[in-house]
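Step 1: inspect the first sequence and its tokens.
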Amino acid sequence: MLESAYEVLLADELRNRGHSVVRQVALTTQYRGRTLDKAFRVDLLVDDVVIVEIKCSERRSPLYRRQLLTYMRLAHIHVGLVLNFGLETMKAGIDRVVNDRHIE
């Protein structure tokens, strides 16, 4: 399936379990005094405390973790998950990322 399908289905399942879920959250950033509205989009923001980045790739990539960490820093979120549905098992496709610093 496509990442967008996994995103919709996972959001529905989390909501059915009582979680607050917002899809495609736009993040704004600053660069050299210029504001870039909606420069990035978070796949899922769960309970305002966890960012979930969804992938559907047959390989793991350190780029996915770095992308998620960027989102976490911009959103001031401490914990995030990369969920890659394209690997042989779901367990192999889960990466937990912790943000040790925040962009102020």
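Step 2: inspect the second sequence and its tokens, then contrast the two.
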Amino acid sequence: MNSGMPALLGALRGPVMLMTLGGLLTAHRFSEAGFSKTWPALLIVFGLMKLFQRLASSNAGDALPPGTAGGAQ
């Protein structure tokens, strides 16, 4: 049931990074927060997306019957 979750999170990583970049550039343009101070948020978002993808893939692996690797023998 959760087998598509890691792929979904991998597919969402790019759009989420672009939205984060857009938000940071908007903040740079319209506020005192310069991009030189806020760019680490991109690293944090990237790390969180990788963490969620890893957690989803490990949860999907737990759903397999014992003794099978990837569902094939």
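Step 3: confirm your contrast with the notes below.
The chain has three helices and no strands. The mean pLDDT is 82.
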